[in-house]
Design goal:
Rossmann fold, binds nicotinamide-adenine-dinucleotide, seven-stranded parallel beta sheet, 7 strands, alpha/beta
Length: about 300
């Protein structure tokens, strides 16, 4: 299925994975609206246009409802419709169980604000537009491998010998991406609520909802995590954002009959490619028509 002529929003596209997603979409002929809090987002639309697509950029904070409205309305005005939403913007910050309350509140606003509220707001702003258009669509939230490879559910993780975090006794990897990111993980796990509920409600409308759950992928965030001085071995193990973006394009090209409600795992030590869909064991489609809401849990 060709993506040419479709219209997409990519959040957090100034650097890192979002930047690679925006460029991969533009190369497929998708018109792309990009937003970011970084000022270098201003230069990206021109670069995307040279790749053959229409483009528009916004300086916007995904946690700010007024900014979200401005991006979504501005995109619709510029392109006429919205077919694809890639909610990618994310921040990392260390947080632990015994942090003091003041730090914890600031962390909550920053980490949950971007990594969960941002996806929530963009979904709420875009979904009514997709429904009104009646032409289906794709929503992809960017989560983390901490949701799928770290013991939950371990059946998804093949626990290959090549995995740098392979469990010594062949069990699942210890959960949660280490000991210093309880809030990051909580926000990303929160995306499961949106993933499953939205996928179920939107399937009758041919709108798919999936999440990307990647391990260490070279980006500004990952480099900052390593104080911009990773060991050569560490750096060599990282996946490339461009490969992940290729997998995103393959997912979008599945079209309306493709997978939905799935956390797609990209794991260090394995090729970065779209794996076959998992068995569709969760989704029983329900309409979002309120007349059908009675009896739903
Ligand atoms: N790189 C990895 O190894 C990795 C692994 C797992 C998950 N992820 C997730 O992938 C996504 C992209 O991460 P990345 O590694 O490319 O990070 P990055 O820091 O390189 O890029 C993130 C982009 O989001 C932008 N951003 C941050 N807060 C924002 C906000 N409130 N509003 C708008 N833009 C905002 C940043 O300015 C930046 O341009 C994130 O959701 C991250 O949690 C990354």
């Amino acid at each position: 299925m060709s993506l040419r002529g479709k219209n997409a929003i990519v959040t957090g596209a100034a650097v890192g994975l979002g930047n690679a997603y925006a460029k991969a979409l533009a190369l497929e002929g998708v018109n792309v609206a990009v937003c970011d809090i970084r000022e270098d987002i201003d230069a990206l639309p021109q670069e995307l246009e040279t790749l053959g697509a229409g483009a528009i950029g916004f300086r916007a904070d995904v946690a700010n409802p007024a900014d979200v409205r401005r991006v979504v309305d501005g995109t619709r005005e510029a392109f006429g419709s919205i077919d694809i939403l890639i909610s990618n913007a994310g921040v990392w910050g260390a947080s632990v169980a015994d942090d003091d309350l003041d730090k914890s509140l600031a962390d909550y606003d920053r980490i949950v604000g971007t990594n969960l509220k941002g996806e929530y707001l963009f979904g709420r702003a875009v979904i009514p537009i997709m429904l009104e258009q009646g032409t289906g669509g794709d929503i992809v939230n960017i989560a983390t491998d901490h949701m799928v490879t770290c013991g939950a559910p371990n059946v998804i993780c093949p626990n290959l010998p090549t995995c740098p975090w392979k469990h010594p006794e062949n069990g699942p990897r210890p959960t949660g991406g280490g000991e210093i990111m309880d809030l990051y993980d909580a926000a990303k796990w929160g995306l499961n609520g949106l993933l499953f509920a939205w996928a179920k409600a939107l399937r009758p409308h041919n709108i798919r909802v999936n999440a990307f759950c990647m391990g260490a992928t070279d980006s500004y965030m990952l480099r900052s995590f390593h104080n911009f001085n990773p060991s050569p071995e560490e750096e060599a193990s990282w996946m490339r954002a461009e490969d992940n973006a290729r997998a995103l394009i393959d997912l979008l090209k599945e079209g309306p009959t493709g997978r939905t409600a799935q956390n797609l795992n990209f794991c260090v030590g394995r090729p970065v490619k779209l794996e076959p869909p998992l068995p569709d064991k969760y989704i029983l489609a329900s309409s979002i028509n309120p007349a059908n809401s009675q009896g739903r849990a």
